[in-house]
Amino acid sequence: MNNMYRNSSRLFILLAGLVLAALSFTSHSEPKAHILKPFANLSAESQDCAACHKDKHTSLYQQWGRSKHYGANVGCYECHVADEADADAIEHEGYTIAVIVSPKDCAQCHSKEVEEFSASHHAKAGKILGSLDNMLAEVVEGALTFNGQSPAAVSGCWQCHGSVVKVMENGDLDPTTWPNTGIGRINPDGSVGACTACHQRHEFSMVQARRPEACGKCHLGPDHPQKEIYEESKHGINFYANVDRMNMESSKWVVGEDYDAAPTCATCHMSATKRLGITHDVGDRISWTLRPAISEKIDAKDIANGKESKPWQERRADMEAVCESCHSSGMVESFYMQFDALVELYNEKFARPGAGIMAELKKHEMITEQPFDEEIEWTWFYLWHHEGRRARHGAAMMAPDYVQWHGMYEVAERFYIELVPQTIELIEKAEHAGNTEGAEAVRKVLEEILSRPEHAWFSGTEDPKVKAAREKAQKEFKERYVQ
């Protein structure tokens, strides 16, 4: 009897397992396509487009079918229609269309968003031809072997920054510049930007654009690791742990009202709070610029050029309003004091001195005008462009490992163990070559820098009491852990 019972139980468990496996296999192997409602309310032109693309490009058709555009009877033609005079206009199945849907096209319905975006730093991202980054991709890493362009730039820098999209004589888009969804793309109609950099076509999902992965295509890696920094921070940890409580489908998505588990990139830089509206100018709430070798307040360049600009104090107040959706004003104020102190430390101890040394070397012709043809130029580039940016962004987004081990530790190592010795070597080389005036000028700059209190440990001029206190603490540490 017991054996019969055991055998029956085993048979039941086996059958149940087979049924579950079959259901699982069916649900994963045969996903049902989105069933679209009849599109009789679409324009006649878009009905023609949809009828054809439904079969030829089923995935695009299904993505559009899940979009708000579909629900609003906005079809292919409304977005892709072009004028015969447009530089990229083509004849397609009896209609004049353009492959590229530019911000100018989107502005027909989304004028406020396009106006805000056009004022942002994102919109200027395509103007990188004169940058050191682009010079690396075109010359140092690459060669002009792909229709007169460097493949390293075409598939690298330009895919984030954006390319100048060119139309060839036969009307086709130049393959060195298209496909491209770079955020600062320069379009044939003269507009700048690509809305699809963040709002991936053809679904244009709010949820997708609100997630940190949307920014990760470009904001990651050794010189701008914002995505990795976010993931290390308490904000990122909370987001991934509580994504099911983020209410990502909300139409208004106000932090502190519609969700409170964590902020995403969009929360801080774009989305609404109880006090602030949505903005597509991602720099509108940023007070420091952390991109260049030496950080400045975000409005400093405009002020120097006599241009009007939203003051950095107002920008910071807006970001503080985002922070205060979850944190007390005292905590937010103290955070900004910590952030400012780190940026100023980097600026004053390493960035301004490094920039001063490099300028003096160039002034006295101890290095050439050509970028990256000498070791010290690579050293300096790593210091500010990679390690210095990581430290500053880490402080801005509360990622301590990026501030320390990926940031200031590597900045310091690069400065003391590479930049300073390489400068001394160039001084000696100049003396041997007879450039004594230049050698003496650079030596004077270097000696003045290293005589400052923040470099006293390196120059051997540290206050004995400070040194003794640190040695005492080190001894106590070793007694605790080295036993």
What is shown here, in short?
The protein has 483 residues and is an all-alpha fold.
Which features would summarize this protein structure in a list?
483 residues; two-stranded antiparallel ribbon; disordered N terminus; signal; mainly alpha; two-stranded antiparallel sheet; Hydroxylamine oxidoreductase
What does this molecule look like?
The chain is mostly helical and 483 residues long. The protein folds into three domains: 96 residues, no CATH class; 118 residues, no CATH class; 151 residues. The protein contains 22 helices and four strands. The chain has a two-stranded antiparallel ribbon. Strands 3-4 form a two-stranded antiparallel ribbon. The protein is globular, with a radius of gyration of 29 Å. The termini are far apart. The N terminus is likely disordered. Keywords: Signal. GO terms for molecular function: oxidoreductase activity. It comes from Alginatibacterium sediminis. This is Hydroxylamine oxidoreductase. It holds the Pfam family Cytochrome_C554.
